[in-house]
From TrEMBL:
Belongs to the complex I 24 kDa subunit family. SUPFAM superfamilies: Thioredoxin-like. It comes from the Bacteria. Its cofactor is [2Fe-2S] cluster. PROSITE patterns: COMPLEX1_24K. GO terms for molecular function: 2 iron, 2 sulfur cluster binding; metal ion binding; oxidoreductase activity. InterPro entries: NADP_DH_HndA-like, NuoE-like, NuoE_N, Thioredoxin-like_sf. Keywords: 2Fe-2S, Iron, Iron-sulfur, Metal-binding. The keyword Lipoprotein does not apply. This is Formate dehydrogenase gamma subunit. [2Fe-2S] cluster binds at residues 83, 88, 124, 128. Binds 1 [2Fe-2S] cluster.
């Protein structure tokens, strides 16, 4: 059985650009599509996007680094997001944030050395009435206690 050849990163990115080039403010939809396809915005795509969109590399890099949604490194196998908005802060989110950082040995925006967990902070998960809120991958949890957070951080669970 033969496997199909994989597309190069450049071919993949140019294909994404071709799909979104005609959209107004095309860079943002393109970056979101790159994130969806690759899981992150590899720094190697910045010159490709700049060339394709007739922008400077600095312009593209500036957008990638300005928005927290665009990762420049491969995320962990699981992503844990802790809400840091006012409603969640009022009911213990700061304590959960400290606990998660201490337990995982990383700060927000980092991935554990073993590649298991990426820890992120967000400023609203839309779950304000039952904070503090934590999102693990695509699943949202409310009224998260320190004990529940420990269970959520257990990547073997």
């Amino acid at each position: 059985m033969t496997s199909l050849p994989t597309r190069s990163l450049e071919d993949q990115v140019r294909s994404i650009v071709a799909e979104h080039r005609d959209k107004r403010g095309a860079l943002l939809p393109i970056l979101h599509a790159v994130m969806e396809d690759l899981g992150y915005v590899d720094p190697a795509v910045i010159p490709i996007l700049a060339d394709e969109l007739n922008l400077s590399r600095a312009d593209v890099h500036g957008v990638v680094t300005f928005y927290h949604d665009f990762r420049q490194t491969l995320p962990g196998r699981r992503t844990v997001r802790i809400c840091r908005a006012e409603a969640c802060q009022a009911v213990g989110a700061a304590k959960l944030a400290d606990q998660a950082q201490a337990r995982l040995g990383v700060t927000f925006g980092e991935t554990t050395e073993d590649g298991a967990v990426t820890l992120e902070q967000v400023f609203c998960l839309g779950n304000c009435a039952i904070g503090p809120s934590v999102q693990v991958d695509d699943r949202l949890y409310g009224r998260v206690s320190p004990q529940q957070l420990d269970r959520l951080l257990d990547v073997n669970a």
